[in-house]
Design a protein that fits this description.
Length: 313
């Protein structure tokens, strides 16, 4: 049986609870694929999974939801996107992605877009499908002007690219240091904070059709409520309490429609990346052995772009 190096959370807390261990990788059965991992995608959900307040009885916890790598084995009577052994693939949503090898359901495996590096490809699907859900839930269509909070973040950058393909115009909040990121992907940047509502009105004199919120601050919500006429077209990833109280939409773990939507959106997101219409900017990569340092950066302020753990071939 193949063995792999695997990061787990041995306790609840910060990066210090992560431990590197060896674990058996079960051979692929029918409908399964074993992947030698070349890069592990990194998302805030990773460290939230073992944050204080979670159920200690579940320890130790595996970490990581998306990977990119090379097919090492295919189960009996199983077909996968990307071909057989040696094919370059990505997988999402998996459990225990911070590993050097993993066996996963074949339905979660997709051919790696050639235009993306392994580190980029490992970060494509969680942010890409989340962005697609934001746009779909808010019913964004050609000609709309959209306000996007957190435009320089990972989900925000994917929203910018997908909105451009739809034909929507995006006003995106960001720090001045990240204005160039927003402009690179065809957004119109505005600073957040005091006076946000007026700055958006100046940037969008004909009004805002929809709001997509990846930040959840009270300032962002207050300005959005003043700017959008139809609250059903105001969608947040984070401001769950205010969404419930004030009648706008929230997506994510608390919304039972989010999982099925994101699963169904994976093929189209891979297609956009394959055609060159969707890319994944990287901020930094870390060696697999440096996962604690990578998670510390992930949990704190860091440059715009995704982080990844990378493994040698």
């Amino acid at each position: 049986m193949m063995t792999a190096r695997q990061w787990i959370a041995a306790g609840l807390g910060g990066p210090e609870v992560l431990r590197l261990r060896e674990a058996d990788v079960p051979p692929p059965g029918p409908g399964e694929v074993t992947i030698e991992v070349r890069a592990c995608g990194m998302n805030p959900a990773d460290y939230k999974h073992f944050a204080p307040g979670q159920d200690q009885s579940l320890l130790p916890l595996t970490v990581g939801y998306e990977i990119a790598g090379v097919v090492a084995g295919v189960g009996p009577d199983t077909e996968i996107a990307g071909g057989g052994s040696g094919g370059e693939v990505i997988a999402f949503q998996v459990l225990g992605g911070y590993a050097s090898a993993i066996t996963v359901p074949a339905g979660d495996v997709f051919a790696k877009p050639a235009a993306l590096s392994f580190a980029q490809a490992a970060n494509l699907l969680l942010t890409g499908t989340t962005a697609a859900e934001l746009l779909a839930t808010a019913r964004v269509s050609e000609g709309d002007t959209v306000l996007l909070h957190g435009a320089a973040g990972a989900v925000g950058v994917s929203v910018l690219q997908q909105a451009r393909l739809i034909g929507a115009r995006v006003i995106g909040t960001a720090s001045e240091a990240n204005f160039g990121v927003v402009e690179r992907f065809s957004g119109v940047p505005v600073t957040y904070g005091d006076g946000l509502e007026e700055r958006v009105r100046q940037a969008a004199p004909h009004g805002i059709a929809a709001v997509l919120d990846t930040v959840g601050s009270d300032d962002a919500v207050d300005a959005s409520l003043a700017l959008v006429e139809d609250r059903r077209r105001f969608v947040t990833l984070t401001a769950f309490r205010r969404a419930a109280d004030e009648g706008f939409a929230a997506i994510g773990a608390s919304n039972p429609a989010s999982g099925p939507f994101r699963a169904s959106a994976r093929t189209s997101i891979v297609g956009l990346a394959t055609s060159g219409d969707l890319t994944v900017p990287l901020a930094r990569t870390f060696a697999f052995e440096d996962a604690r340092d990578a998670v510390a950066m992930l949990a704190g302020p860091h440059p715009s772009g995704k982080l990844a753990l990378v493994l040698d071939a």
